[in-house]
Amino acid sequence: MIRVALIGSTGYTALEVARLLLAHPQAELTVATSRSDEGKPLAEIHPSLAGRCEIALQEFAPARIAEQADVAMCCLPHGASAETVRELAAVGIRVIDFSADFRLSSVPLYEHWYGVKHPWPERIGSVVYGMPEYYADEIATADIVANPGCYPTSAIMPLAPLVRDRLIENDDIIVDSKSGVSGAGRSPKLGTLYCEVNESIAAYAIASHRHGPEMQDLIHRISGESVQILFTPHLTPMDRGILSTIYVRPKLLEGDTVETVQTRLMGALRHAYQGQPFVHVVDHIPATKHVVMTNHVQMTVRVAGEKNSPGRAVIVCAIDNLSKGASSAAIQNMNVMFGLDATTGL
Amino acid sequence: MIRVALIGSTGYTALEVARLLLAHPQAELTVATSRSDEGKPLAEIHPSLAGRCEIALQEFAPARIAEQADVAMCCLPHGASAETVRELAAVGIRVIDFSADFRLSSVPLYEHWYGVKHPWPERIGSVVYGMPEYYADEIATADIVANPGCYPTSAIMPLAPLVRDRLIENDDIIVDSKSGVSGAGRSPKLGTLYCEVNESIAAYAIASHRHGPEMQDLIHRISGESVQILFTPHLTPMDRGILSTIYVRPKLLEGDTVETVQTRLMGALRHAYQGQPFVHVVDHIPATKHVVMTNHVQMTVRVAGEKNSPGRAVIVCAIDNLSKGASSAAIQNMNVMFGLDATTGL
Amino acid sequence: MIRVALIGSTGYTALEVARLLLAHPQAELTVATSRSDEGKPLAEIHPSLAGRCEIALQEFAPARIAEQADVAMCCLPHGASAETVRELAAVGIRVIDFSADFRLSSVPLYEHWYGVKHPWPERIGSVVYGMPEYYADEIATADIVANPGCYPTSAIMPLAPLVRDRLIENDDIIVDSKSGVSGAGRSPKLGTLYCEVNESIAAYAIASHRHGPEMQDLIHRISGESVQILFTPHLTPMDRGILSTIYVRPKLLEGDTVETVQTRLMGALRHAYQGQPFVHVVDHIPATKHVVMTNHVQMTVRVAGEKNSPGRAVIVCAIDNLSKGASSAAIQNMNVMFGLDATTGL
Amino acid sequence: MIRVALIGSTGYTALEVARLLLAHPQAELTVATSRSDEGKPLAEIHPSLAGRCEIALQEFAPARIAEQADVAMCCLPHGASAETVRELAAVGIRVIDFSADFRLSSVPLYEHWYGVKHPWPERIGSVVYGMPEYYADEIATADIVANPGCYPTSAIMPLAPLVRDRLIENDDIIVDSKSGVSGAGRSPKLGTLYCEVNESIAAYAIASHRHGPEMQDLIHRISGESVQILFTPHLTPMDRGILSTIYVRPKLLEGDTVETVQTRLMGALRHAYQGQPFVHVVDHIPATKHVVMTNHVQMTVRVAGEKNSPGRAVIVCAIDNLSKGASSAAIQNMNVMFGLDATTGL
Residues A79, A114: contact at Cβ < 8 Å? Predict the structure, then answer.
């Protein structure tokens, strides 16, 4: 049994990790820490765990955690996280970091978008991005894994193969994403009160959300190509799920029709994810309901335009922001890190 | 035009008052105060008012308000409200108070349930309860009106006539109420975050909610009878609306059947609210959707039991907690206070 | 009092018309027809009208309606509607048609997109599009008004002025719209069952929805410019509201920065809608919650790109699909047709 | 591996069974039948299974199913189900029946409440009720298991021990239940359209729902006591979950206080479910969110009244109507039938 420590246990991603571990045949939660609720049972913070989980919250003590756990899932906010990850790494615990602290490939990019000095800049560039569909080998041996952002997962997965295969224009990509409210976290704020967001949809952080550069950076790392993405996130009245509607301009070949372009793009995606147990290139248009509470990804392509005059391609990709966008992706990473089948417990 | 001052302008009931006044042909909002957001446009706090309302928030200054307004709608929390109402009354402004400070008929009852010393105990007992269906004459001349609680409105309206007419047992009444989340206010709290309450229903404050004694007190004042109510509120995943399912034991007469009891109870309610423009005794079972965004009340009765052996009666009553349960009821009270038809602007 | 007939009374737009007329000081519902529910009280079909509306449904008999009503609101499906409108016009009743039958300016365009022969092709081209912000004079004297589509309203209102003023490229417009479920109507279908759409967002009819050509056609009529729009609608888990996120490419001038472009586009919209009581160009990013249950429109612009290298502009526009997207727009049209202030009863 | 056949595969409970089997380590779905969609892939009917399930729907052919499956989960409507169960039993397949056809202990009771002649009355009385907390031994060897109703599960589990232990009055029990919409099934109906039920709560079938007699019958079978239950179901705007708020009158002992009664009732429930992995008697008040997507049950008790004058007890019980109220309960039953640990795959 893999022994797992949960660092920062009061939020939605932490609950999701705990819930998934209860059903995991080869891993178990052995430690849960919290600065604010030390001593309380984890099930008091998350009443859905009542009667199912006996763990009490403890303070963060790396040396003790090293005795109790093989891997730490670090669910702390950016900035705070890097410091904690360093302390865990120092005592030899492998870490899956849910924050953005080790996702970007350059310190200036991080410091520009996150507005803080990076606490451990030396490690930027040598932490693997936890997307096993692309980095399984590095993840298998990693000491630290940067768990991907939720929006980026929904955009990178359909875009990376198309950019890598030179099938679309790199400088004309629009990602219009719709996320459930859990992505905004569990801290009480006016903006996530039920009566503020229920029965309403709203755009926010237009062209200024931190996940935009994460998408660009990763697609570059995967494909070797620089891309320009205009990213608009929307807060949608639902607990979970991200739907990204992505507008791209296909590179056209002589004689292309709507149909040939559609076939080419769908084919490229199908080929890219052949054998991947969690990524499904589907004929129907995915809805978030098709994937919530799972680690699965569904995506499809529709090419616009008149028959012989193909226009933009519209890609739709659906994931669960708390699952493949956070906690089940972390379990998948853990499985790969410890030599299990990627699907174990998922 | 009646000039209206809004005291405490940042919450949902205040927004609802502002919204209703925009459509009122004989009243207008002239003042809005806020301790926390003084100076800001009201429309910045409530973006739905953008382009529709020019008022800026000002500090609370009774003398100045007396020059600008004929009536104040006081949307402050209990305790704080009574003090403010006293200051407004002192400068001659008529007040409709949304808090519970003047609803109950006895100081000890108030202090027991609200856990604070009453700031102006002398006025307890001489403030009219703002339910024009029962107290229109007193409201017409009142200096202060205690605007009813939301849950109490949904229980008093169907119960008071039945108790007054001696049709049900007074000591065996259960009120099981389901409320939308707006009843919990607009202050950020974990318990009203979207992801905590969405897709979930929960009971709270079982047999210990302050609106229980308010129901008992008012039914006693209206009917002259003491009643015993077991009250359970529930938080329901919707913005607005209260549905109260009320279990009572009808007094039976010789030869009563399910049908005769049903007819008697429905008849008593129909008679009690004949000519009341906002209260509808209906044949269908009301849903909150039938009344939200209106000042209307829908209620019905179903008698349980075998044909010749009538059992309990189940009463269902639906209101909108922010409308008839708060802000539109206040407008109705204002209309009555200023000699307008009760339905004006509603 | 304007006497209004409702033709096709069982759907959501019909209920919304009835509800708005109850609050209208100078119009009243005098007739409501229904093929399927003839004889039933309208309030039985729409229980929210219980106790508030005495009208019973009657069969469709144009001659009798001509005696009872001054204007008909025709809430029938496309195809069926044109025939009915013709019969109403024949007996001299002015008509506001909610269907798409008279919205487009060419018969082939209609027949291509709607897949049926137009029942009254002679009138195509001589029916005014019921958007009083552009066509108030024609509406004032019209015998037939084509009430705009919901999605088109949310796109035409922000785009038409920018195209007319030559501020954006005409051939690179993407409209990504998110609509509440009421837009799909009240006929029982698997796709609009609660458990199919709740807690889920989905794209549909990608680049193939009939409202795309309606947007293009109207913007052309308003601006004289041909535009190319890629339109993707999404079904969003909420009753009402449309949010359109619109991606356009601004025409750049020498020395333009993000800020100058932003100022120019916002300025053009503010100028276009100056004095329009229902259209608000706002600084905040609109959410559908800011406009639902009103006839109001909120829109804003955000320009992407680096400071001195402005990129695309993102326009966000929010309306209520059942209000400004259907029924309150019809009331606004009626007001204009009968010489009332456009805001009467709204 | 246990081979499972799904009979009637297009509804929500069938999807839930398929979903649970995908994660079950010792059972697999081998057959899925459907009258209406024969030949289609199951994943076309339920797009959340895309890429995860290769099964195509076949017609119902008992002999062939007998070769392909060890157990059938029969998700048909009442009446139709009994006939099918009989055919399956005839070819030696063990059956878990989701309908009500074999839940009640008497033919007249069934025929009175369901309004149809029972197709296989001989088996009434000899089919075990699939609640392993009470009938594990019978289930282990059963050929047919009647899977419990959703509302009954939420009422029987807290009430049966209290009645059996003679702790409450048998003739004064009120069950006020709130259910998510999935309980109403997946057939398109006006009453379960999104816009009819969203943002609304409504009572229905007051004192006349078929699950009332099922509760009474089962509590009688478990406890030997006859009980009288007044049952009111409510449709709540959420996908899944049932919360039952249950009002009972405790039998009082000399010197009882609120506290002693509370302790006695909680103690009895804790004792009854000691060692049961899915039933949790908790101190907090359960919300449906604490149990949805699980097979778990949470319940608690609050006693009303003044300190030394205990009144009614209010019991709150939360389950997921599609899980413990249907499909995961069926998996639990299957586990018991095939000698697995009851928690396998759950």
Answer: yes
